[in-house]
Design a protein that fits this description.
Layout (H helix, E strand, L loop, with lengths): L1 H18 L13 H9 L4 H10 L8 H9 L4 H10 L3 H7 L11 E2 L10 E5 L2 E5 L2 E10 L2 E9 L6 E2 L6 E3 L8 E6 L5 E12 L2 E6 L9 E5 L5 E5 L6 E6 L8 E9 L1
Parallel strand pairs: 6-14
Antiparallel strand pairs: 1-3, 2-3, 2-7, 4-5, 4-14, 5-9, 7-12, 8-9, 8-13, 9-10, 11-12, 13-14
Helix pairs in contact: 3-5
């Protein structure tokens, strides 16, 4: 009965707004950074928060300091990506232009505003767009004295999409710490994979190889700039597909991070 009274009240207000000239329309909800923090701290599941961001008009503050504050407040990487994808105009902007290009993961920065630790940027039009790392799991399958380990990322495509076939990146990681690799979309699951280990074992011993295979690495040219960054450029044009900079030493505990992107 209580829900029915609420429903009738809403219907009545809408009817009055339509029938009375000059009536004030019902205010539409507008999501902000504080709204997202409130949902996260309220215990809403990550998927629910992301769905709310995608379906509701928003006006997010996406400056670097604001994104860091959201991270400290407990907002997950996937929610941050959804906020950046929604952009400052949110759902209202996307509905007015269905063919709009997806927003980059973070606002472009001038060179003087760059972070200097644990970060990778893409150089776009003379400015730097920060890439966010995606969490990935290490899965190992064993059968018939054989083992195979793969890094697995959720989703068949990265949210960060680029059209430049030979993009330029600025990284605080060396090519040894974060090699550029090509990821393989899953055959049966909604994921992307990278084989990172294999081996054979017998009752009295065996061998195990771990690490990124040479065949999965993308050849790059690297320059060290005066600020200490590594300027990384693929040696040849990248064909359309899924790629990422994998933090090679981060999977010892069964999970790690990949700065993933897709080339369209």
């Amino acid at each position: 009965m209580k829900m029915m009274r609420v429903l009738l009240t809403v219907v009545l207000v809408v009817a009055l707004g339509v029938s009375m000239p000059g009536a004030i329309s019902i205010a539409q909800e507008l999501l902000t950074n504080d709204s997202v923090i409130q949902m996260v701290k309220g215990g809403l599941p990550e998927a629910v928060v992301i769905a709310k961001i995608k379906s509701t008009p928003s006006k997010f503050d996406l400056k670097t300091d604001s994104l860091l504050s959201l991270k400290k407040a407990g907002v997950t990487d996937k929610i941050l990506e959804a906020m950046v994808s929604a952009g400052s105009g949110g759902a209202a902007a996307s509905s007015s232009s269905a063919a709009a290009t997806p927003a980059p993961p973070a606002p472009a920065l001038a060179a003087g505003a760059l972070k200097t630790q644990d970060v990778i940027y893409q150089l776009v039009g003379g400015k730097y767009v920060e890439m966010f790392a995606t969490s990935a799991n290490l899965e190992t399958n064993m059968a018939f004295f054989q083992s195979k380990s793969e890094v697995v990322l959720e989703g068949r495509k990265a949210q960060f999409r680029i059209s430049d076939k030979q993009p330029v990146f600025l990284s605080t990681y060396s090519s040894t710490d974060a090699p550029l690799v090509r990821l393989k979309p899953g055959d049966e699951h909604n994921d992307r994979n990278l084989k990172i280990g294999s081996g054979a074992f017998m009752p009295f011993g065996g061998t195990q190889k771990m690490g990124v295979r040479n065949e999965d690495k993308i050849a790059v040219t690297i320059e060290r700039d005066p600020r200490g960054f590594y300027k990384v450029t693929p040696s040849a044009a990248l064909p359309p597909g899924e790629y990422g900079f994998i933090l090679a030493t981060g999977f010892g505990a069964g999970s790690g991070k990949v700065y993933d992107f897709g080339v369209d």
